[in-house]
Amino acid sequence: MSVRLRIGGPLIAGMGPCFMCQRGYIQVVACGELTRNGGPGHEATEIPLYVCGACEGKLTLLLADALRSPVRPYVAAGLPH
Ligand SMILES: [Zn+2]
User: Fold this and answer.
1) Distance 42 CA to ligand 1 centre (A)
2) What pLDDT score was predicted for residue 3?
3) Backbone angles phi and psi of 31, in degrees to 5
4) Can you give the pLDDT at residue 13?
5) Which of 2, 25, 60, 72 has its CA 20 to 30 A from that of 80?
6) If you average pLDDT over each of 6-10, 30-34, 77-81, which comes out highest?
7) Domain assignment of residue 81, yes or no
8) Residue 54 lies in a domain
């Protein structure tokens, strides 16, 4: 199972639950997908993920921090992530 997040792209807005803060029926934007590969007994799945404006802001800050920081030690060490 993997989660792929996109921020700042073309945003599809709607009403629904936020997957990060678990708030209920609020204004949200599409921010990525949750995917699971197929295998014995289950089919591959891909579902869209939605976040509220506050959580989108948190993700944007995370991204800004990551871009500003030097390469993280575990990445530089070549460990799998
Ligand atoms: Zn939220």
Assistant:
1) 29
2) 87
3) -135, 5
4) 83
5) 60
6) 30-34
7) no
8) yes
The 8-class DSSP code of residue 21 comes to: T
Chain segment 41-67, per-residue pLDDT in tens: 889 999 889 999 999 999 889 888 888
Interval between CA 36 and ligand 1 midpoint (Å): 23
Please give the C-alpha separations between residue 42 and each of 4, 23, 37, 38, 47, in angstroms, as whole numbers: 20, 29, 9, 6, 15
| Dist. CA 34 → ligand 1 center (Å) | 16
Q: Which two tokens stand for residue 75?
A: 């990445």
Whether residue 25 is contained in a domain is answered as yes
C-alpha 41 to ligand 1 mean position (Å): 33
Give φ, ψ of 11 to 5 degrees: -100, 130
Supply the range of the domain harboring residue 65.
Answer: 2-76
Strand partners, 63: none
What mean pLDDT comes out for the span 18-45?
A: 90
